[in-house]
Amino acid sequence: MAVTLFAPDEFDALHTGVGYLVPNMEIKIVKDDGQLAGYDEEGEALIRGPNTFKGYYRNPEASRDSLEGGWLKTGDIVMMDKTGLLKIVDRKKELIKVKGFQVSPSEIEGVLLENEHVIDCAVIRVIRDGQEHPQAFVVPGDDKVTVTAIKEFLEARLAAYKQPTGDIIFVDAIPKSPSGKILRRMLQQSASKGIAHL
């Protein structure tokens, strides 16, 4: 289902956008309070068009959860700039779509924490040329932790599509809420600014 695209003469230098809405599709961005988002404001993307599915086969409950007055609730948290470029900021459901596979950030995090040289970590999704990739933030426990060492550790334990192809970034700490929940939105913001390896 095509929703956005880049024309041959269009280019996003920062690689943060997923394209511009195709002519036969409609989108509305709804904030947490139910109001429509303005330019550069975050909200969930609801889409409508001739190629939007009509519902789940023999599953009316799932259809009601996913459709709202003919609009498909994507679960993507997005923003649109004044040029019409759509940017995916986050996902209500944290699964990352990699080459058609669903990748769980917590699974990658669990494997990373098996490494005795890793104190803490977090995995988020990033967009590279319109494709989703896992990106790992790692708090190293000592100088034995290198990007190469982390890659080799993960390659021996996870399928190829679960590898952090977005990047592996070393940080001093993982931002968390008072209850210990990883603040992935803060990591998304850091990733969009192009954090370098420490």
Characterise this structure.
GO terms for molecular function: CoA-ligase activity. Residues 107-181 form the AMP-binding enzyme C-terminal domain. One of its GO terms (biological process) is secondary metabolic process. The structure is a single chain. The protein contains four helices and twelve strands, in the order ββββαβββββαββαβα. It is of the alpha+beta class. The chain folds into two domains: 4-91, Luciferase, domain 3, CATH 2.30.38; 96-192, ANL, C-terminal domain (GMP Synthetase, Chain A, domain 3, 2-Layer Sandwich), CATH 3.30.300. The strands form three sheets. Strands 1, 2, 3, 4, 5, 6 and 7 form a seven-stranded antiparallel sheet that branches. A three-stranded mixed sheet has the order 10-11-12, with helices on both faces. Strands 8-9 form a two-stranded antiparallel ribbon. A hairpin with a 4-residue loop joins strand 6 and strand 7. The protein is globular. The N and C termini lie far apart (40 Å).
What is the count of helical runs?
Answer: 4
Roughly what fraction of the amino acids lie in strands? 25-35%
Structural domain count: 2
- Poorly predicted residue ranges: none
How much helicity do the residues have? 10-25%
CATH architecture of the largest domain: 2-Layer Sandwich
SS-based class: alpha+beta
Main sheet makeup: 7 strands, antiparallel
Going by CATH, what is the homologous superfamily of the largest domain? Answer: ANL, C-terminal domain
The counted number of beta strands is 12
The SSE order reads: EEEEHEEEEEHEEHEH
N- to C-terminal separation? Answer: 40 Å
The overall average pLDDT, rounded, is 88
